[in-house]
Amino acid sequence: MGKAIQDLRKEHDAILHVLEIVDKMLKDNTKDDSAKLPSYNEVVYFLKIFADKCHHGKEEKYLFREMADRGVYDEDGLMEVLQQEHNQGRELIAQMDKALSAGDFADFKTSMTGYGYLIRSHIRKENEALFARADDFFDFAEQDRMFEAFEKYEENVIGHGVHEELHGLIHKWDEEF
Length: 177
Description:
- The protein is an all-alpha fold.
- Helix content is 86%, strand content 0%.
């Protein structure tokens, strides 16, 4: 497995871990929703920045494009489906954000639960199908080049130190929930 795909898989692991924490957060009856509001807002921030802007951005700007530009045909429509799911995820994150701004915890939970189902299925498709294709198609040198592009993209798009800040939030939620 090449470096670029390893990086994306590692980010999938982080996203799945956050979804497990969120499941616990939503089921936690020791605090009411108002007390959990700061954590809910942090989760939405994490999903906007890490899952969508950073992770999905790398996939769309580099992996999907490189595969299409280099002749990996989407005969089964997988990349189109994955792009649609990225867009659905963005819509659900926007719904979560709107619900929290309105103090509508029921709508937040509904949108968050829907997002969890969508992204778990999405990650399974990428891990089992798309990444296998990419590993077959891109050699180690090409993946190293793509990984370097990922690193520059992350620095330019989310900024220095934000990745570490987001992983700090994961650690905080692990302890709290």
